[in-house]
Amino acid sequence: MKSMKLICLAFLYLIMQCSLKAQSNNISDAIFNVKHYGAFGNGEHLDHIAINKAIDACAAAGGGTVFIPAGKYLCGSIHLKSNVHIYLSSGAVIVGANPELNVYDTAEAFPYTQYQDGGHTYFHNSLIWGEDLHDISITGSGMIDGGAITREDNEAGGNILQGSIGKADKAIALKNCKRVFIRDVTIYHGGHFAILLTGCNWVTLDNLLIDTNRDGIDIDACANVTVNNCKVNSPNDDAICPKASYALNKPVTTENVIITNCTVSAFKEGTLLDGTCIPAAVGWSGGRIKFGTESNGGFKNCIVSNCIFRYCDGLALEEVDGGEMNNIVVDNIVMDNVHHYPIYITLGNRNRGPLATTHTGTIKNIYISNVRILNADTLSGIQITGVPNQPVENIELRNITIQYKGGGSKYSAQRVFPELGKGYPEPYLLGVTPAYGLFLRNVKQMRLTNIQLQTIKPDERPVIYANNVLGLQIDGLTAPLVKGVKPAVFHQVKEISIQNAPVLQLDKVQ
C-alpha cells in the first residue's frame, strides 16, 4: 500500500514538472500594450474592446504578451486566444462592468442543461473566457475584480437553451483548453466561479490569491492539473473543487490532479484580501476542498497534500452521479475551526446524467494520512459511507489527530442516522451522527492506524459507530469516553481486528 502511494505521488509530481516546463516554453517575446489599442485604464471608460483588439493583434502576429499597465480597466467580456499571454502589472485591475451596459457575451446554446447547474453549462457569459485554445496564460501581480458579475445562475430556472439576461457569472471560464498557466494574480468577487476549468488539459494554477463570494477554483472534467501555493477564501461555497459533470455532453474523468501547498478558508468576503480574516456566519458549507458533487465522469489519481483549512468545512470526497472515484491520496493536512464535519467520504445515488450513463458509482483506494484537526464541530465525526448494495472499498486513515468541540448528547447517540440515497451529499442535511469520532456504514476493507481523538467538552456519544462493514482493522486508537457510554456500536461488522486500542475493549462494545 505504501509503495502504491509513493508511486502515485512520484508520477503526479513528474506531471507537474512537465506541465510547468511546457507552459514556460510557449511565451513569445512580442509585447502588445493595451494603451496602444485605446484602453484608458481610468475606471470610467469601457476598456474590454481595446483589450480584445490587443489580444487579436497578438494572436495574429503568432503570439506574445498583452501588457496591461497599472490602472483600473472597466470591462465586459474579454476573449482569450491561443499563444497569448496576458500580463497584469502591479496596480492593474480589471473590473467587471455593470450588466445594464450590455457588455457581456450571450451564453451559448447547450441541449443537455438538466445534468448540471447553469454555471457549469455556459462559459461565454463570463468576464474572461476562452474555448478550444492552447498555450494561454494570465500572470502578474495585478487583480481581477469581478465588480458587478453575479454569484447566481443567470438562467431562468437555472438553465437556458440559448441567450442570457446579459449578466456574467464567472471571472475566468476556460473550456477545452490545453497548456494553461495562471500565476500570481489576485481575484476578488469572482461570481459563481472565480476560475472554472472544464475539459482542460495540462493546467497550472500557481500562487493565486482568491477572495470570492462563491466557488473559488472548479476543475471539471480535466486532466493533468496542478494547483500550487494558492490561497482561496470562499465563505458561501467551495474553495477548490474538482468535479466531473456532463458539461461536455459526455462523462469525462477528472484525473491526475495535484492540489498542494494551498490554504482554504471561509472568512467574510474581502477579509482575506485585507488581512483581517473576519469569521463569516456559518451556514451553507463553505471554504473547503471538495471532490463533487458533480461526478458523472468520476475521479482518478488525484493528490491533496500540504494544505491548510482555516475556519471552514473539512475535506469532502463525494461520488453520487455514477462515476468511479479511485486512487485518491490525501497527506499532511492541518485544519482549525472546522465546520460541520472534518472528513466526509460518501457514495450516493443522485445519478445526475443521462439514464444510459448513470448507475451506482464506486469509491475505492482512498488513502488519508498525517492529518491534524483542531476545534472540529460537534455535529459529525468522520463520515465514511457507501450504499447498501455498493460499499466504499479499501479506505485507509493513518496518523489522524482530531480535537472535537464535544458536547454531544446521549439522545444523539440513539438517533437513527438516515441513508443518503438520492439526496444531496451534505453532512449537515443529515443531522448529528450517533458517534462523535467515526461513523462508518456500507464499507469494505477499512483500516484505521494511529487515530488520536480528543474532546474539549465531554461527549455522551460512542467513539465509533459501524454498520455493514466487512474487514475493519484498527491498530492504535485513543479517545476519551464518558462513564457509562459504550465505546463503540457495531452492527453487521465482520472480520474485525483491533490492536493497541484499550478504549475499544470488545466486551464493552455493543
UniProtKB/TrEMBL annotation:
Q: Which SMART domains match?
A: PbH1 (SM00710)
Q: Which residues form the signal peptide?
A: 1-24
Named from the GO MF annotations, one term is: polygalacturonase activity
Q: Name one GO biological process term.
A: carbohydrate metabolic process
Q: Does the keyword Hydrolase apply?
A: yes
InterPro entries in the record, alphabetically? GH28_Enzymes, Glyco_hydro_28, PbH1, Pectin_lyas_fold, Pectin_lyase_fold/virulence
Database matches in Pfam families: Glyco_hydro_28
Q: State the Gene3D superfamilies in the record.
A: Single-stranded right-handed beta-helix, Pectin lyase-like (2.160.20.10)
Keywords attached to this entry:
Glycosidase, Hydrolase, Signal
Q: Which family does it belong to?
A: Belongs to the glycosyl hydrolase 28 family.
The name on file for this protein is Glycosyl hydrolase family 28
Please tell me the species this chain comes from: Hydrotalea sandarakina
